[in-house]
Structures are given as structure tokens and as C-alpha cells.
Amino acid sequence: MRRIWVDADACPGPIKDILFRAAERTGTPLTLVANHPLPQRNSSLISNVQVSSGFDVADNEIVRRMNPGDLVITADIPLAAEVIENDGDAINPRGERYSKENIKARLTLRNFMDELRGSGVQTGGPPALSKSDRKRFADQLDRWLARR
Questions:
Q1: pTM of the full structure
Q2: How far is residue 132 from each of residues 17, 121, 124, 138, measured CA to CA in Å?
């Protein structure tokens, strides 16, 4: 059975709520991975994994545990690239599906922006999660669930 993994340290609450409802509705196991304690859900389908603090510890745990065909929810582009490399699926909290066709361009852009920030250029952060972002995410999730 395919599973959904959530890079939970930075996943917005409204996205987690969509995931919780979808897991219950479809009987899909869901695991949140974070380096801080998460509230326990009263569901046999939803579990938490707490990892130690450190750079990429949660990401590495997700990659270690996931199976081909699993879905990972993350805004972390290097993590998404590893997931795709391991034949998994990845969606970010704004509803963008990462794929073999777009991940290299996304990594290049991410690295470029990281270099700009490293040189002192203020690039700003992402805008707040909007209703259309939540809808786009729910639609992508439903498409993945329909393929199971």
C-alpha cells in the first residue's frame, strides 16, 4: 500500500488538515516526520516520527523509509529531487507537482536564489498560502489518490 510522507517541520497547518481528511477518507497511511514533537492524532492511519535536530535529518529519514510510488509533501526541492530519483512522487504545499521533467530546473533556480542570498541580495520570502494554493494542493492530492 502506498503511503504519504510529510516533511512536517515547515508544512502549513491548513495543508496538514487537508492531508488528515484525505487519509481518513481514503484509508491511506500518512506519516509526519519532524525534528520537534507533533500532536498525536486519534487515528490508526496517521503517525508521527520525531527525528533529532540537524541539517536534513528529517529529509534523510523520509528518503530512507519511503518506497517507490509513495507520495512526499515537501517544499524542500533537494528532498523532492531525491524522492523522484527513488521513484516516488512529490508535491509542494502550494500544489506544484515535482516531476522528472521539472525538478532539474527547480533545483537550478533554487541554487541560484541561494547564491543570491549568500551574496547579500534580499530575495524576500514566499507569499502567504492562499485559498487558491490550498485548492491546487487538494486537487493534486486527489489526482495522486485516484491513481492508487
A1: 0.87
A2: 16, 29, 21, 10
